[in-house]
Amino acid sequence: MLLILLALPLALASGLIGVFAGGGIISLGSLVGFVTVLGIAARNAIMLISHYRHLAVEEPSITAKELILRGAEQRLAPI
Fold this sequence. Notes:
- The chain is mainly alpha-helical.
- The chain has one domain.
- 80% of the residues lie in helices and 0% in strands.
- The longest helix has 31 residues, at 28-58.
- The radius of gyration is 16 Å and the shape is elongated.
């Protein structure tokens, strides 16, 4: 849950940095981009947490550190 709560504000802050780096004009296109970036960030966080839960059920003896490393390695992909 913390992953989702951190991913969304960081995605929004990155989008704002991009707007100000590009001249500081917020247009309809940039607002659509914000919604898209937030949607992708939320989707990735939810899918990663779902994969963590799947790994925990499939391999109950796995440690938390191994679970996080393996889940991130298997699930995180650039979009």
